[in-house]
Write a structure and sequence with these properties.
alpha/beta, 2 domains, 7-stranded mixed sheet, about 45% helix
Length: about 290
């Protein structure tokens, strides 16, 4: 279990979630503005994803966006993480700090939590201790009422297969071969030209790398390998590990050399988090170099 958790801690889940969120709401890409890792202060106090609805008259007809107002805060937990009572209150405090610092009307603010594991202890706390009402509005989507702002908790493993498949499949346990392969092909067909899928694909592949590397021992592995081959992605998941290992061994030079290598990795589509881990360069340096907000 510790090895699984450690491996998943190394996977850049947050950039993948941003892509999944954009893909889920892709029809509204001209209406919504995404601000990943939105900084609240000069200190490292950030919101995972801030989604700004730029046109209030447009109704976002997606299950995860039914509570949307103007400023919509998302807190994402990776598959190895659990949404505890304390984590809920920390995020709630950050939402209130955002309201105060940005002078946002409380009526314009929502808070969403995305987690794979069902947060039973938190739900008990919300209803019994805080007196909030928790309602299962859709499979995997729980709306919390009674707080000063609309809140929803999204349990990814229980989400529906249709419009929420992008977020549901942010997991290390892809399990339904036919459905999963259909999803991968749909991702390629519908979003490849509209979104940079590198971070999303990288996280999914890394999380399921052990199963992919088994060969063709089960139906999922066989179909997944075949689909990756058809879509031209086979070399990406085969070579990422070799690339990182080789780079870790040689990146001992000057800053200029590391930045040059970082630019090469960025051009190849590797996530900034992975580049930072491999090159040992600060995230701030890389974001400034690549002009990332």
């Amino acid at each position: 279990m510790d090895d699984i958790k450690k491996n998943n801690d190394d996977i850049p889940w947050h950039p993948a979630f941003v892509v999944a969120l954009q893909a889920t709401l892709i029809e509204y890409r001209n209406v919504l503005e995404y601000k990943p890792e939105y900084s609240l202060t000069t200190e490292p106090l950030r919101i995972d994803v801030l989604v700004i609805k730029k046109r209030q008259e447009v109704a976002i007809r997606r299950q995860i966006a039914e509570i949307f107002r103007r400023d919509n805060i998302f807190e994402f937990k990776s598959p190895s993480d659990y949404l505890s009572v304390n984590e809920f209150h920390k995020a709630f405090a950050r939402a209130n700090l955002y309201k105060a610092l940005e002078n946002v009307e409380i009526a314009d603010l929502t808070l969403s939590f995305v987690v794979e594991a069902y947060p039973r202890e938190l739900f008990r706390h919300l209803s019994e201790t805080l007196g909030y009402k928790v309602e299962a509005r859709h499979p995997g989507i729980f709306v919390v009422t009674g707080a000063m702002m609309p809140i929803q908790i999204i349990e990814t493993k229980s989400l529906s297969d249709d419009e929420n498949i992008w977020i549901r499949n942010l997991t290390r346990e892809l399990s339904e071969p036919e459905q999963d392969m259909k999803w991968l092909k749909r991702l390629k067909q519908e979003c490849d030209s509209k979104l940079d899928l590198g971070a999303y694909l990288y996280a999914i592949v890394e999380a399921n790398r052990q199963r992919l590397n088994k060969g063709e021992n089960d139906m999922l592995t066989a179909q997944m390998c075949k689909t990756f081959e058809e879509l031209g992605w086979t070399e990406i998941w085969r070579n990422n590990g070799k690339l990182e290992g080789k780079l870790e061994g040689k990146l001992e030079g000057k800053l200029e050399g590391k930045l040059e290598d970082a630019c090469g990795m960025f051009d190849e589509g590797l996530p900034v988090e992975t580049i930072a881990r491999v090159t040992k360069l600060p995230m701030e340096t890389l974001k400034e170099k690549f002009a990332i907000q």
